[in-house]
Design goal:
single chain, mainly beta, outer membrane lipoprotein receptor (LolB), chain A, nine-stranded antiparallel beta sheet, 11% helix, 39% strand, globular, chaperone, Outer-membrane lipoprotein LolB, lipoprotein, LolA/LolB/LppX, membrane
């Protein structure tokens, strides 16, 4: 299932809020309203764009949990000493990693303050100026909530 564990408190990389960046860092959390409910969180560093980028997830003590890298037609998941797993897209990789579809492409727009329409998802960008983003998926089930708190 999902490889993120723990409750993240810090990230060492800086981030900014706004449309002029392609790098963000902070904490993210994902809650799935499944039976039983599931909740995951980690520190993150995200760079690039929907077509080519990298997402690194770290534990509260700073160890790397996973690195996801993608480019057109290919996405790679690396977790510790395990053999890298390859996928045809970042969307396929994200679904494998979390067990549910996530709007990775839209996340870049949301973090820049851009309204992105994704079927089933509602993003609340009203607190982005203070470094907070919430997105909720009602369909397909199970419902999911993605929370992002950006580093200053």
């Amino acid at each position: 299932m999902f490889f993120i564990a723990g409750c993240a408190n810090q990230s060492s990389a800086g981030g900014s809020f706004g449309s002029d960046t392609n790098h963000w860092s902070g904490r993210l959390g994902l809650t799935l309203e499944s039976e039983p409910p599931q909740s995951f969180s980690a520190s993150f560093a995200l760079s690039g764009n929907p077509q080519a980028g990298e997402l690194t997830l770290t534990s509260p003590i700073g160890s790397t949990l996973a690195v996801m890298q993608w480019q057109p037609g290919r996405a790679v998941l690396r977790q510790g000493e395990q053999t890298a797993r390859h996928y045809e897209s970042i969307d396929a990789l994200a679904q494998y990693a979390t067990g549910t579809p996530l709007p990775v492409g839209a996340l870049f727009g949301w973090l820049r303050g851009e309204t992105q329409s994704v079927p089933g998802w509602q993003a609340d960008l009203s607190q982005l100026a203070t470094g907070r983003l919430n997105a909720r998926r009602l369909m397909p089930l199970p419902a999911a909530e993605l929370r992002v708190v950006l580093d200053r």
